[in-house]
Design brief:
Structural class: alpha/beta
CATH superfamily: Aldolase class I
Helix content: 25-40%
Strand order of the largest sheet: 5-4-3-2-1-9-8-7-6
Order of helices and strands: HHEHEHEHEHEEHEHEHEHH
Number of helices: 11
Bound molecules: S-adenosylmethionine, 6-(5-methyl-2-OXO-imidazolidin-4-yl)-hexanoic acid, iron/sulfur cluster
Strand content: 5-15%
Number of domains: 1
Distance between the termini: 37 Å
CATH topology: TIM Barrel
């Protein structure tokens, strides 16, 4: 006989999680945690659907910030060459190819500390053209000044990505050139303009479990919760201060995904950077625990990604995105 399923509703969506509650969930026996997360996942999402987003670095390297994990900071010698903002036609070629391969969203990243007014028009033009291809649009451009988010929204921007990265307590071990509150301010500006939020963090920066819970507590206090929550596993980059950081254990990573799902039931949780180092089994457990989005393609921004062939094979083997695959035919 099937076990009775608990009923969930929007009243289960809370922005007042306490640290004690979140830590108690994190410490549940692994199977209990994943079972609870999977139950919440099924109440709020189609468990057979994994959203697919394609990333493109539209302006690479030479960034003035000192994010200790990043290949694109000008402060570290990582071998990444700085380049100028791509022109719209080149961006569109990649966007059209992504659409043809079945991408749901096109996410564009620029290695900027903040968006400059002189670039806003070019960025808006790119957003409008990508959106016209029938793709959802996402931009990550650093900090936003007053008024810029409104212009991006008018151009058709659906999502703004700006990560908190880690807990408030651990943050200054990772980044010193802008504060946690600077980041929250930019997120507030995007939200006020009606742009949906994509906000998450990175695991494997040398943080401990309290920091992972701390990051999720901060995210869950955003009201409403971020529509999209990327959970990245550090891709260690030679030349950066965090190149040798202690990596996060697979089981701890899965626990964090499960906790994100429990604390933010409606958000789309994205299994983001670092999938190259995750086994198929680990990824399957993350999907079971509530992850329902991935980055597709051979590259992230500067780092390699799992790749379309491996991902199509994995999703097919797991029976995910079946409808899309059936519609595409043999
Ligand atoms: N410059 C913009 C900013 O930081 O707001 C946008 C680009 S930045 C590369 C976007 C996010 O990618 C970072 O906030 C971080 O969470 C993630 N990221 C960057 N480098 C990474 C790495 N080596 N491993 C995992 N995630 C990384
Ligand atoms: C996010 O949280 N992860 C993506 C996206 N937002 C922009 C970026 C991952 C970057 C991985 C390292 C690189 O490609 O340089
Ligand atoms: Fe610059 Fe973004 Fe990299 Fe930080 S994460 S150094 S802001 S590109």
């Amino acid at each position: 006989m099937d076990a009775p399923q608990p009923a969930y509703s929007d009243t289960d969506i809370r922005t007042d999680w306490t640290r004690a509650e979140a830590e108690a969930l994190y410490r549940l026996p692994f199977s209990d945690l994943v079972f609870r997360a999977a139950s919440v996942h099924r109440a709020f999402h189609d468990p057979g659907k994994i959203e697919r987003a394609q990333l493109l670095s539209i302006k690479t390297g030479g960034c003035a910030e000192d994010c200790g994990y990043c290949s694109q900071s000008a402060k570290f010698d990582t071998g990444v060459k700085a380049s100028k903002l791509m022109d719209k036609d080149s961006v569109m070629q990649v966007a059209r190819a992504a659409k043809a391969k079945g991408a749901d969203r096109f996410c564009m990243g620029a290695a900027w500390r903040s968006l400059k007014d002189r670039d806003v028009e070019k960025i808006c033009d790119i957003v409008t053209s990508v959106k016209a291809e029938g793709l959802e649009t996402c931009m990550t451009l650093g900090m936003l000044e007053e008024g810029q988010a409104e212009r991006l929204a008018d151009a058709g921007l659906d999502f703004y990505n700006h990560n908190l990265d880690t807990s408030r307590e651990y943050y200054d071990k990772v980044i010193t050139t802008r504060t946690y509150d600077d980041r929250l301010e930019t997120l507030g500006r995007a939200r006020k303009a009606g742009v949906k939020l994509c906000v998450g963090g990175i695991l494997g920066l040398g943080e401990d479990q309290e920091d992972r819970v701390g990051l999720l507590l901060e995210l869950s206090r955003l009201d409403p919760h971020p529509e999209s929550v990327p959970v990245n596993r550090l891709v260690p980059v030679k030349g950066t201060p965090l190149a040798e950081a202690k990596s996060v254990k697979d089981l701890d990573f899965i626990r964090t995904v499960a906790l994100a799902r429990l604390m933010m039931p409606k958000s789309v949780v994205r299994l983001s950077a670092g999938r190259e180092t995750m086994s198929e089994t680990m990824q399957a457990l993350c999907f079971l625990a509530g992850a329902n989005s991935i980055f597709m393609g051979e590259a992230l921004l500067t780092a390699p990604n799992a790749g379309d062939d491996a991902d199509s094979a994995l999703l097919a083997e797991l029976g995910l995105n079946r409808e899309a695959a059936d519609a595409a035919g043999p």
